[in-house]
Design a protein that fits this description.
By secondary structure, this protein is of the alpha/beta class. It is 49% helix and 8% strand.
């Protein structure tokens, strides 16, 4: 019979595996800041690889062979559909692929996301999931969390608009109402909306944003930190660039929090 690892030993091990260039005190400081100020997360292409599901469904349905890496713009799939002259509404069809209720419960987590978010949950940082998904995806999204992170359902941490449209404004409104101090996001346009409300927003590197730079002091990108250097932390750059993108952005956000507040 397999012996269960004591929680304290598990968390100590995870600290060593998840975080580069931190002292234990710095890890404690960042976690204390998130506990006091709140950390929220987007779902699609931040926590889960919805871009992979969407492109797979697009290819299967239309006999194409596109890859997620070709999505150099979040709405590029609309253009792909337009090029095929199908006679359908391209935007509506693309939204259907990205929000397919039969596949949402089985989406794959972004590498590192499940491990990071589970660790944060275990140290008392419960992350509200805020999404611009249309209201009709609520049940399938809840099913995803029942299967993967049941505490999201148990603690009522999922926030989806009541509107049957893609609704980034509802996501921003929820973040403000919750009083979140920080947020993890993949869409630069939505990162600006959050940052304008005073929310420190880390941009998850994706093909549609990984060449973007910004002067907004509340929008944090991995590329800029690699270009300008870390302010407090001292991770090994060769190891850092090999980390899953969700862990990279967490490090960048932690570095900024340590610089500003400690």
């Amino acid at each position: 019979m397999r012996k269960e690892i004591p929680l304290e030993i598990f968390l100590t091990s995870e600290r060593k595996n998840l975080f580069l260039g931190f002292t234990n005190k710095q890890i404690d400081n960042v976690e204390e800041w998130f506990q006091q100020n709140g950390l929220g997360s987007d779902i699609d292409s931040s926590e889960v690889m919805s871009e992979r599901m969407a492109v797979d469904l697009f290819n299967l349905d239309l006999g194409q062979s596109r890859s997620p890496q070709e999505l150099t713009d979040r709405y590029l799939m609309v253009h792909w559909i337009e090029e095929l002259n199908l006679g359908d509404d391209p935007l509506k069809k693309a939204i259907g692929y990205w929000n397919d209720i039969n596949n949402i419960p089985y989406m794959k987590p972004n590498p590192g996301a499940y491990r990071l978010y589970t660790y944060l949950h275990l140290v008392g940082i419960d992350i509200p999931r805020l999404t611009a998904r249309p209201a009709w995806t609520r049940d399938s999204t809840l099913e995803y969390y029942r299967r993967n992170s049941p505490w999201v359902v148990e603690k009522d941490l999922l926030y989806i608009s009541d509107n049957n449209i893609i609704d980034p404004e509802a996501k921003v409104k929820s973040a403000v109402e919750l009083g979140l101090g920080a947020f993890i996001e993949d869409a630069l346009e939505e990162a600006y909306l959050l940052a304008d409300k005073g929310i420190l927003t880390g941009l998850v590197p994706q093909s549609w944003n990984n060449r973007k730079y910004t002067d907004h002091t509340n929008v944090l990108t991995v590329n800029q930190r690699l270009r300008d250097g870390f302010k407090v932390l001292d991770p090994n750059n060769n190891q850092f660039v090999k980390m899953p993108n969700i862990l990279q952005v967490y490090h960048v956000m932690a570095d900024e929090i340590l610089f500003r507040y400690f």
